[in-house]
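fwd from M.: "can u put these together and see what the complex looks like"

so here's what she sent:
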Amino acid sequence: SQQGEEDPQALSIQEGENATMNCSYKTSINNLQWYRQNSGRGLVHLILIRSNEREKHSGRLRVTLDTSKKSSSLLITASRAADTASYFCATSQGAAGNKLTFGGGTRVLVKP
Amino acid sequence: DTGVSQDPRHKITKRGQNVTFRCDPISEHNRLYWYRQTLGQGPEFLTYFQNEAQLEKSRLLSDRFSAERPKGSFSTLEIQRTEQGDSAMYLCASSLWDLELFFGEGSRLTVL
């Protein structure tokens, strides 16, 4: 079974708008990571946030983590058509050797 | 920069045949992971290696699946007596300890 569940499952926005997607998980984590996947391609790491961090930024990306609610959000600001992809959260738990458990993903369509 | 490479990228086989996928990780990475991804779903963990040692196997990995990483460099994933349910994208990733995972482009398997 998958640890993380993303919400919404799909998102359609206009270029220039912000895109926000959420991830909920079930068990305590070491860190939470977000990945992007273009159709038919491999996954690309976007950002990692550790369990003792609450917010992290990377370029147009902002990630928050609320361990009390076991949830995270990914915000993409000023979206571009090239941001069209599926976005996955993944959690690392315990002494699991950074074995990641992925959610089902949010499919984002940015319309030009 | 040589990232993670996987071969073959696509494989079509008949039910009952054996298939083998190869993954070449980033050279300095000590951890190597195999994931399986079906259409519209997030990747599911199969197994991972630290150097040449296989440290964890998912219950998804039936007896028909075997993975090796001789000498702690490249890895192979073999599926014996393939079934139609094995059709999926098989993703390989590598990492240096607990840092982010770098994924290959995947090997897409179609079992007829």
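replying to her w this: The two ends of chain A are 36 Å apart (CA to CA).
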